[in-house]
Amino acid sequence: MKTRIILLAVFSFCLLGDTFAKRKVEEPPSDRQQWADLCYKIAQPILENMSKGELQKNMQLELSPTWDGRDKRVAYMEAFGRLMAGISPWLSLPADNTAEGQQRRQLQE
């Protein structure tokens, strides 16, 4: 009886060990990749709509509860200005064939 239990335990362990060994461990993206993806996610809708002349039509404004009544039309230019001030160093990096480089090239066009 003990032998049967031991054999069953060893056999089960071999099956489970093989299952765990086949799992691929996916490495999380690097900090740089996460930041590049975030920059692209923020910049792409603004730059694409602005290049088509549709930013005001497609950008939904969210005003602060403490909004002081200034002209809402400046929000679009402010979004573009803040975006360019933030990502221009990243956009000015030399071209390369990485995924990040392709994102930069698409935003530059």
TrEMBL record:
<dbReference type="InterPro" id="IPR049349">
    <property type="entry name" value="DUF2264_N"/>
</dbReference>
<protein>
    <recommendedName>
        <fullName>DUF2264 domain-containing protein</fullName>
    </recommendedName>
</protein>
<dbReference type="InterPro" id="IPR016624">
    <property type="entry name" value="UCP014753"/>
</dbReference>
<dbReference type="Pfam" id="PF10022">
    <property type="entry name" value="DUF2264"/>
</dbReference>
<feature type="domain" description="DUF2264">
    <location>
        <begin position="31"/>
        <end position="107"/>
    </location>
</feature>
